[in-house]
Amino acid sequence: MTPEDRIHALGIWQGPIDIAPITGGITNRNYLVSDAVARCVVRLGTDIPIHHISRQNELAASYAAHAAGISPAVIHHSPGVLVLEYIEARALSPEGLRAPDTLARVLPLVRTCHRDIARHFRGPAMIFWVFHVVRDYAASLKETGSAYLPLLPELIGRAETLEQAAGPFEIAFGHNDLLAANFLDDGKRLWLIDWDYAGFNTPLFDLGGLASNNEFSEADEHAMLEAYFDRPLTSDLRRRYGAMKCASLLRETLWSMISEIHSTIVFDYSAYTAENLARFERAYQAFEQDR
């Protein structure tokens, strides 16, 4: 059955429908669907155990994020299908997100995610522990005889160093994939979408991912941390944050290495691996210099 046939067969539409692919997704296939009444976003994707993605967890997080007022409503769900309210908005770009006035709007949204979603979340909840994810990815790469096998011992050794340096850990409910495209601006407010990797984590992982995914300068990072925590940046916090930022880049690198082997979505994962590995190396060198 084609994706279009699956969407037609949902039985939730009012009259004929128009289906248009939404480009950009690299773990789901997304479609904008219009019927006689409304427009919706349809996300097609099953569990991806290799990436620790559970669609039941994504669904629960989507409900909770909507209840917290930061994400679109769930319209329908069935195995492998999630239908969401369509928001007329534009996705942020890394350049746009870095603008001081935009970042001043992004950080309260991230803080709401961390502080409020857990109050609305129902059922079993996942923990997204980046150091476990990295170790599990490395084990999977070994099992498949990845071409990156020679790099793994040093990368895992660095992950252990980072885990020791990043504590003690505050725990909150994290989005764990803060790409610019997951923030939508409808002209009045921002929304946060795509809860594939949602789960309890340290807030520093989201902040590190926000900075690394969007290429923040050191000054941007300093301002972000002081604004988020509402206090002057200490050397201890800077050190722990630097470790989690490195960990977020290492996880993204290994995620891409795994995707080179397992993903069926057309995307240049090899180039993405090289890009993230280079960014990790730069961040790790800066982390070591901050000792």
Features:
291 residues; 3-stranded antiparallel sheet; Aminoglycoside 3'-phosphotransferase, Chain: A, domain 2; 10 helices; Phosphorylase Kinase, domain 1; 10 strands
Summarize this, please?
InterPro entries: Kinase-like_dom_sf. The chain has 10 helices and 10 strands.
Care to describe what's here?
InterPro entries: Kinase-like_dom_sf. It holds the Pfam family Choline_kinase. This is Phosphotransferase. This protein has 291 residues and is α+β, with helices and mostly antiparallel strands. The chain has two domains: 3-85, Phosphorylase Kinase, domain 1 (2-Layer Sandwich), CATH 3.30.200.20; 90-289, Aminoglycoside phosphotransferase (APH), C-terminal lobe (Aminoglycoside 3'-phosphotransferase, Chain: A, domain 2). Helices cover 50% and strands 14% of the residues. α5 (130-143) runs antiparallel to α6 (152-166) and α9 (235-262) runs antiparallel to α10. The mean pLDDT is 95.
Draw up the topology in text.
Elements: H1 3-8, E1 18-22, E2 29-34, E3 39-44, H2 55-67, E4 74-78, E5 81-85, E6 90-91, H3 94-98, H4 100-120, H5 130-143, H6 152-166, E7 172-174, E8 183-185, E9 190-192, E10 199-201, H7 203-213, H8 218-229, H9 235-262, H10 269-289
Antiparallel strand pairs: 1-2, 2-3, 3-5, 4-5, 6-8, 7-10, 8-9
- The level 1 CATH classification of the largest domain is Alpha Beta
Counting DSSP E segments of at least 2 residues, the number of strands comes to 10
Number of domains: 2
Overall pLDDT metric: 95
Task: Sketch the major β-sheet.
Answer: 5 strands, antiparallel
> How much helicity do the residues have?
40-55%
Shape: globular
CATH architecture of the largest domain: Alpha-Beta Complex
Secondary structure tally, helices: 10
* Multimeric organization: single chain
